[in-house]
Design a protein that fits this description.
Elements: H1 7-19, E1 33-35, E2 46-51, E3 57-58, E4 63-75, H2 85-96, E5 101-102, E6 106-118, E7 123-135
Parallel strand pairs: 1-2
Antiparallel strand pairs: 2-4, 3-4, 4-7, 5-6, 6-7
Length: about 140
């Protein structure tokens, strides 16, 4: 069994790459980046979550695959404008500008994108799903 197939290791590699981008919030502070999920009770105006929401698949004895995800959470603009498109697009473009993300053990490349929202807390969320190749 390849130890690089551990979901925690994959999330850590993606987290490290995203954190190294030094993305700034609208107030010019470091963007909070989390592993796995956005912690409950955390009400940052903006944050990024790095996760592996799927299983890891063995493709051959030399590599595996999974889907990794970068979730961009941005507080909605206001009740009249809703989604804060400007901020989402700015963060999105920074991430897209560096894809694919490559480490010694993993390759993360664009697969697809989904938008949703957390209505109860007033967030718009963009999920950037990444095809992930796990090297031996």
């Amino acid at each position: 069994m390849n130890l690089n197939w551990d979901i925690n290791r994959i999330e850590n590699a993606l987290y490290t790459k995203v954190k190294s981008l030094a993305i700034k919030t609208a107030s010019n502070t470091d963007m909070p980046v989390y592993f796995g999920y956005k912690p409950s009770g955390v009400l940052d105006n903006e944050c990024i979550v790095c996760s592996v929401p799927t299983n890891v698949n063995e493709e051959t004895q030399t590599y595996g695959t999974c889907i990794s995800r970068i979730a961009i959470w941005v507080k909605d603009g206001s009740t009249s404008t809703g989604k804060n498109r400007t901020r989402i697009t700015k963060i999105h473009d920074i991430i897209f500008g560096v894809l694919p993300l490559i480490t010694t053990a993993y390759g993360f490349d664009f697969m697809n994108e989904i938008q949703t929202q957390d209505v109860d807390n007033g967030y718009s969320i963009t999920y950037i799903n990444l095809y992930t190749r796990i090297l031996s």
